[in-house]
């Protein structure tokens, strides 16, 4: 049932995108034809047709949810993105800016004036403003701080004070607190007086007179227990809580492990200062996954699918330069064995197989290790067993597939010794790939670097260079 709803939701998103793209294409086609026809009142006709097309497009955009509009904006080239963005109701600007990626948000903000940015930010909660604050001009943030009331200003300044990957950057301040000495009936009356409750509210936070949290009251207990019972009698005293300095990825793991919807955030004295909700955690996980995927390909987080050619090219220069250096080193390894290749031309045809299989095997290992590091599964206690396991897998794969490729080379070139060299080189390069796949991300993490950034580039360099060296070296020693 859940999968069916997810598929239906994705289909609706894609259908909305197709409809918007179709309308934009129709606009270009119709306005192009009108422009070609000419006539005495050409400008008037073109302006009328343009307004009609914009009205139809705006009618379609207006009925969409802000999150769906954000999805569509990210899939449109810059010129079409601006067209659609200008048709969005101003009251939804803040929500859409919150939903889009950093790179797309930057392109949208460039088309907004100061008044529009202030209006969009003021429509958001303080924790949401903090999420987009890094992309807002400094003068907008300064003026925004003067327009907020004292409590909201303090909350915003508090949220902005924490680094991006900490719990403090994820927390919001919409909480419902109660005292332990009141009855459940009093707590229910208090909730009714509040009227509108915070989103993702699954529990109330129980605090003492100093605002120190002493327990949580799940809503299901509040609704199913005798109203005359006190909060202290039914509250949960063993609960998960975070400090604002805690790492966000550790909090996300706790949310997954304990199936949390909300969790309190406390200061060093145990006083309640905010909460973390599952929707903020899901957004963090998605953004982290996107960033890791781009990083493994050597791309920066701010890469926009439809950014300018110049910006996209600059964004990719660093790792292309690194690749060029590593490729040059690999070519020098081959150059050192030019004499061997001249004597046995088959080496030139076969050596890419050794390097390619080694790279693929290493990528499998490095993906597992990076995932294990991210989840906290790789520790000092189990690292040795993990290394032995991956080496064993490499040996088994090397024996199986090395034998297969050795037989292939033997049959193809009618040289049994060449087949033996192929088999041995495959085995050794798979061992190198396994060790590189394990130790590259581990060393990067030990150095305080993100293991996902550049790992695949370094792995390719090692498996290519060592694959060529092992194969050509063995061929030189054993065949020539």
Molecular structure report:
With 480 residues, the protein is mainly alpha-helical. The protein has three domains: 2-165, MgtE N-terminal domain-like (MgtE N-terminal fold), CATH 1.25.60.10; 177-279, CBS-domain (Roll); 309-478, Tetracycline Repressor, domain 2. It is 69% helix and 5% strand. It is flat, with a radius of gyration of 30 Å.
Secondary-structure blueprint of this entry?
Elements lengths: L1 H36 L4 H21 L3 H9 L3 H8 L7 H7 L2 H8 L4 H9 L3 H7 L5 H10 L2 H11 L6 H4 L6 E2 L5 H11 L8 E5 L5 E6 H6 L6 H4 L13 H11 L3 E5 L5 E6 H19 L12 H27 L2 H6 L2 H30 L4 H34 L2 H31 L8 H24 L2
Parallel strand pairs: 1-2
Antiparallel strand pairs: 2-3, 4-5
Helix pairs in contact: 1-2, 3-5, 5-7, 7-9, 8-10, 15-16, 17-22, 19-20, 19-21, 19-22, 20-21, 21-22
